[in-house]
Amino acid sequence: MRARVMVTLKREVLDPQGEAVRRGLESLGIQGVRNVRVGKLIELELDDAAGDVQAALTLAVEKLLVNPVIEDGHVVVDEAAR
Q1: Comparing C-alpha atoms, which of 65, 76, 4, 6 is closest to residue 38?
Q2: In this structure, which of 3, 20, 65, 82 has its CB flanked by the most CB atoms within 10 Å?
């Protein structure tokens, strides 16, 4: 089974890396991009008998994977992926 944790800066936190990407896209001639947010993706491969994966990863997000002051974390579990 696979799971993904997506970590992004909270909307109210400035994202200088995202702004640099937006300006870079503009310099490449890609128009109309108003905002870019850059985050990180954490991919996990888990044993099928890992128990309540959603609850365990939600706890991991809260305690380890994000800085709750400035980041949000979102867990997606793909039980079909092997």
Answers
A1: 6
A2: 3
Q: pLDDT tens digits for 14-63?
A: 999 999 999 999 999 999 999 999 999 999 999 877 678 889 999 999 99
CA pseudo-torsion sign 7, 9, 11, 12? positive
CATH of domain 2-78: 3.30.1280.10
Helix, strand and coil content of the chain, in percent to the nearest 5, comes to 30, 25, 45
CA distance 6 to 26: 25
Does residue 9 sit in helix, strand or coil? strand
Question: Measuring CA to CA, how many Å separate 16 from each of 1, 12, 13, 32?
Answer: 35, 12, 10, 18
Q: How far apart are CA 31 and CA 25, in angstroms?
A: 8
